[in-house]
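F.,

This is the one I mentioned.
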């Protein structure tokens, strides 16, 4: 089996995570300034990101909490970016497991 799909999905997943980080950073100032409570619930503290390798956003706050109206378009963009990142990451993991399984089976 060729490892080209694994490499392609890995690069795509890394780029989507990078884009998610950039979008989260661009929205951070407006969200935390206009709605500090929602911003505190949405964004992961930098120390937790560094120590525990967490992402920039808390998923529960992003998808489950009600969104303030004036930042709704930015949050929808973050939701789309997070969903795409999650799908690409899941596809990458499945592709890696599939490649390992095929290599072990001898196919």
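My design for it:
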């Amino acid at each position: 089996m060729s490892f080209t799909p694994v490499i392609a999905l890995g690069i795509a997943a890394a780029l989507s995570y990078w884009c998610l980080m950039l979008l989260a950073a661009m929205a951070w100032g407006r969200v935390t300034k206009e709605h500090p409570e929602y911003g505190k619930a949405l964004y992961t503290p930098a120390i937790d990101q560094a120590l525990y390798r967490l992402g920039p956003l808390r998923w529960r706050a992003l998808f489950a909490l009600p969104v303030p109206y004036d930042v709704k378009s930015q949050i929808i963009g973050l939701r789309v970016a997070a969903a795409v990142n999650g799908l690409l990451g899941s596809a990458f993991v499945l592709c890696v497991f599939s490649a390992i399984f095929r290599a072990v089976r001898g196919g």
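The radius of gyration is 17 Å.

Talk soon.
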